[in-house]
Design a protein that fits this description.
9% strand, single chain
Length: 488
């Protein structure tokens, strides 16, 4: 045995491997722990971003359903069916969504098999900015309404409207007050009639001067609706006070305001799209909406009165003014009709022995004739017919003798030219967009308040976009502050 031991070679190794392993493991463990903490922090930041995006998306998913179904707009009603809109309610909804998405209580894995390595919870959340539909005179609403109509309306419709406006503005059809001119002519003729005429040194006589506008002036005093509507008794009698709606509250300075930077004013294309939106989502005479408070809604945009019949009368009078001016233009250009007027005026001037009155008689006849024809035009439009902006001889209806004894007639045939809706486009185009927008939002509040659960609906509580900030803390000593903006 001793020999065998002596014959063996005994190798002895020093202990450097143990020291190397200890040093290496220390570095590796430190690196792994650092990497684990880095991963934890980055995961906390990433999950905070995801949860914030989900929370804001969830808030915007609470859009007002009636507003979408009836008007095609996605907005959040900050009142949530309560009496008054409050952004604190929206903050509470956002906080609820963030808290639930940060929590692991709903995790499907059994608690004893799962450990929360992030331990995240919401510390604070605030809504920093909101954009409301009514901000900047309704520009937020205007932008959304234009986007709603973009793609539905072709360029051809816009080109037609601009072509019509060139004619209207070129001939000054909206600037000329023909009825005021007719009043001045009547007053001038009355002055001649009131003056005593001397026949000799001591003999005087009063000469009766015929007024060609007398018959049509009587029609004006009766009211235009009696002439242009078949049955006045069938007109809507709906009426409401407008003070409690957005335009009235805005005039009193009682509306909410967002705090986003001011919106850019809409361009020409957006303005035309906005008009199409109004015509598409508002009722009017001949095309009413059964579930609306006011039946003549487009006419309300033009008149702004709380009574349907007042707004219709206002619109009919404005249309009559346009048609009067257009008909005067036609009469002055038509040589045949101008010759008839000159001949009749010469006869009247000869009868009263006042040759200097011939130009006055001519003007009076032209204005009366144009007014009578304009009544026929408006009646045609309200009956669903069409009337050209500038008439041709074949489009003319009344003869010159009609101005002395106007006759009421049945609703005319359809004809060719512009429809009632086309003329409404022209009238809307020349109105300030801010005024039309506020009045349309009046209509929105009127009708939405008639639906269940929306009795206190307000357009100045409708959120279009918002910016929020949240602070999330972790049980592992990490806090994350995040700010996000979301919009439809």
């Amino acid at each position: 045995m001793n020999e065998l031991r002596k014959g063996r070679e005994v190798h002895r190794f020093p202990g450097y491997l143990t020291v190397y392993a200890a040093l290496t493991l220390t570095v590796m463990i430190s690196l792994c722990l650092a990497l684990t903490e880095g991963v934890r922090r980055h995961t906390i930041a990433f999950e905070t971003e995801c949860v914030m995006d989900i929370g804001l998306d969830s808030v915007l998913a609470e859009y007002h359903r009636v507003l979408l179904e009836r008007y095609g707009l996605l907005m959040v009603d900050a009142s949530y069916g309560t009496d008054y809109p409050s952004y604190h309610i929206t903050e509470g909804h956002l906080a609820n969504y963030l808290t639930r998405n940060l929590s692991c209580e709903d995790c499907g894995i059994l608690p004893f098999l799962y450990r929360d390595l992030l331990a995240m919870e919401l510390k604070d959340v605030q809504i920093l900015k909101v954009a409301l539909a009514t901000d900047d005179g309704g520009r937020v609403f205007q932008r959304r309404a234009a986007e709603c109509m973009r793609g539905r309306m072709g360029l051809e419709a816009a080109e037609k409207l601009l072509e019509w406006m060139e004619t209207v503005e070129g001939y000054g059809l909206l600037e000329e007050d023909i009825e005021a001119r007719m009043d001045r002519v009547s007053a001038e003729l009355q002055e001649y009639e009131d003056a005593d005429r001397q026949l000799g040194e001591e003999e005087w006589i009063r000469i009766e001067i015929p007024d060609p506008t007398e018959a049509v002036q009587a029609l004006r005093r009766e009211g235009i609706l009696k002439w242009v509507v078949e049955d006045v008794s069938q007109l809507s009698e709906a009426a409401t006070g407008t003070d409690r709606y957005i335009s009235g509250r805005s005039a009193r300075g009682e509306i909410n305001h967002g705090n986003y930077p001011q919106e850019e004013p809409p361009g020409l294309t957006d303005n035309i799209l906005l008009l199409e939106y109004f015509l598409n989502y508002a009722g009017r005479y001949g095309k009413t909406r059964e579930d609306s408070l006011l039946q003549y809604q487009v006419e309300y945009l033009l008149g702004g009165n709380g009574a349907d019949i007042v707004n219709l009368r206002h619109t009919a009078n404005v249309l009559c003014g346009i048609r009067e001016a257009a008909n005067v233009v036609y009469l002055l250009q038509d040589e045949g009709k101008r010759a008839q007027v000159e001949a009749a005026a010469a006869v009247l001037a000869g009868v009263v022995a006042q040759p200097e009155l011939q130009p006055v008689f001519e003007t009076a006849m032209i204005l009366a004739w144009a007014y009578l024809e304009s009544l026929h035009d408006v009646k045609t439009l309200l009956a669903g017919g069409r009337v050209e902006l500038l008439k041709k001889e074949s489009d003319w209806h009344y003869s010159l003798t009609g101005i002395w004894a106007p006759q009421r007639e049945a609703a005319p045939e359809k004809g060719a030219g512009l429809s009632y809706e086309d003329y409404l486009r022209i009238l809307l185009y020349v109105q300030p967009p801010e005024l039309l927008t506020m009045r349309f939002m009046d209509l929105m509040e009127m009708d939405i308040r008639r639906t269940p659960g929306n009795s206190c609906f307000r357009m100045d509580g409708c959120i279009d976009r918002l910016e929020a900030e949240a602070v999330v803390q972790s049980g592992y000593g990490c806090n994350v502050t995040i700010r996000r903006e979301k919009a439809y």
